[in-house]
Amino acid sequence: xxxxxxxxxxxxxxxxxxxxxxxxxxxxxxxxxxxxxxxxxxxxxxxxxxxxxxxxxxxxxxxxxxxxxxxxxxxxxxxxxxxxxxxxxxxxxxxxxxxxxxxxxxxxxxxxxxxxxxxxxxxxxxxxxxxxxxxxxxxxxxxxxxxxxxxxxxxxxxxxxxxxxxxxxxxxxxxxxxxxxxxxxxxxxxxxxxxxxxxxxxxxxxxxxxxxxxxxxxxxxxxxxxxxxxxxxxxxxxxxxxxxxxxxxxxxxxxxxxxxxxxxxxxxxxxxxxxxxxxxxxxxxxxxxxxxxxxxxxxxxxxxxxxxxxxxxxxxxxxxxxxxxxxxxxxxxxxxxxxxxxxxxxxxxxxxxxxxxxxxxxxxxxxxxxxxxxxxxxxx
Length: 380
Ligand code: GMT
Fold this sequence. Notes:
By secondary structure, this protein is an alpha/beta fold.
């Protein structure tokens, strides 16, 4: 198949899923065209069957800001026409699905309905729960969903939220997120990584996100404060975003700055996960929580909230713990329990690796392939 993919290139789960999916499809012989504002952060080196088309929005003094969504629509139409795309897969409803929908309209004059690409939209989370829930955006998100030929959601939870908010015209198929366990595994040799991070023998907690309010960064910091009061430990904070500066101020004011490393945006997180003993993810609501699955693949138990998509793949007392949102005491207690009982930790870590294998990329890429094929068959 010839597949176009459009996604947010920035540090975030939807871009990671879209990029890993595109790379896996290309390995399986499909031709994949990424159509984006910039190269997605996990794209890496170019390889056979992968092409990248950059979208540049026109700057004109009359426009207060460039119209990216329109430029994207034109670029999708151009690539679809010249590369004869069978499918355009939009990740995150806004603007990708909407731009692809517009691109299809542009092509309607030049190809028959049955020759035009099929539009697949994957909903990732905040496109429904935050953007879609906003009254100013609801109409466009609804249009994007209803005008797609096929819609998928990354968890049962997100499907339910989508149905509740939008009552879509067609069935939303759940295709869960995935991890490549050949790339995400606990590296056996970590002495050098520990040295580079300035780590001794202390326990290591990690948090990876885009530092937005939904991630509840203050809960990560307060939990870690309670941990470091009791046992020698370091907190690795990976990623960047609006809450980072506040977090830096908080650790300085509360006297734990020397135990916290702000690492910023890092693409290759496997070495960092390989030295970590615990991931803290106290989000207000994750449709899935890809970072937790990737941590589990690297043998890192997780403490997450008992809402959203987490309970679909994380079992309390087996892969870590599920706690009430905002309950820092409960989170700290569970964290200390895990970090101080080494026998228990080994068991949790092993369970995590086993669980992550059930979400291996190959299985889920096959689901997407079958999904595309079904839509194309229906069009015959
Ligand atoms: O909200 C984010 O953290 C980023 C967002 C994105 O679009 O990149 O993540 C969403 O999609 C991920 C991949 O499907 C999911 O693993 C995240 O849970 C989801 N985020 C939220 O629902 C808050």
